[in-house]
Amino acid sequence: MAEGSVNEQTEDLAALEDLLGARFVDRRLLETAVTHRSYLNENPNLPLEQNERLEFLGDAVLELVVTEHLYKEYNMEEGELTNLRAAIVRGEMLANVAARWNLNAFLRLSKGEQRDTGTARQFILANAVEAVIGALYLDQGMEPVRQVIARDIIARLPEVIAKGLHVDAKSHFQETAQEVFRLTPVYQLLSETGPDHAKIFRVAARIGAETWGEGTGLSKQEAEQAAARDALARIERERRSPHRRRSDS
């Protein structure tokens, strides 16, 4: 976000409200939702709060709304419902929601965080989506929140199901690795960055001594699932290649 006074930035939030389709009674809640802790570390005298508490609340509200929808609309076993929920609220999906809300334009970040436009920024954006949900819940209650979640998040469920994004990628990768290579895959933690409340994990999916996929996530489990999906995609590419490995023949 461009530098400016707090008042100027507050006025900018009217554009975010337009994208959300909601007018806040207490605009300070929305201000807090878009304020990252790094911004306050750099500007300790500003009368602002950072968004981690709202993120904590929004995560719970989002999970409840999605869970309720899945329970009512999908006659599935618990495990399948859990996988669907995990797929729709994972960091990558929420980062896409942040793009729809143009949230990156409204985030208050330190100069250092502003320069980082990679994976770390995507997770900051995903967390900010949860913070905005928490802010909207406090400001207007459950029904407006439910409408926003239904429009911008739950609406992605058909796509998730069609693309099989809810499938347990680790189980599928294990079955494929054993079938193709006669080996069981293992996962290696490559890095663990960020503060305790918002760590980003990077994991490699390995078959024998070779890395077949990598993934990141806000938990080791999410990163392992992402690495397994990456590995499955590579195996599929190699299967389609005219120069397939001998072990895949």
CATH topology term of the largest domain: Ribonuclease iii, N-terminal Endonuclease Domain, Chain A
Q: Give the overall silhouette.
A: globular
Radius of gyration equals 20 Å
The percent range for helix content is 55-70%
Strand content: 5-15%
Element-by-element helix/strand order: HHHHHHHHHHHEEEH
Q: Give a quick account of the main beta sheet: strands, pairing sense, barrel closure.
A: 3 strands, antiparallel
Q: Give the number of DSSP strands.
A: 3
Explain what this protein looks like in three dimensions:
The protein has a 3-stranded antiparallel β-sheet with strand order 1-2-3. The protein folds into 2 domains: 6-162, Ribonuclease iii, N-terminal Endonuclease Domain, Chain A (Orthogonal Bundle), CATH 1.10.1520.10; 169-248, 2-Layer Sandwich (Double Stranded RNA Binding Domain). The longest helix has 22 residues, at 52-73. Helices cover 60% and strands 10% of the residues. Residues 1-8 and 245-249 have low confidence and may be disordered. Helix 2 packs antiparallel against helix 8. The protein has helices spanning 6-20, 27-33, 37-42, 52-73, 78-89, 91-100, 111-115, 119-140, 142-152, 157-162, 169-181, 220-240, and strands at residues 186-193, 200-207, 210-217. By secondary structure, the protein is mainly α.
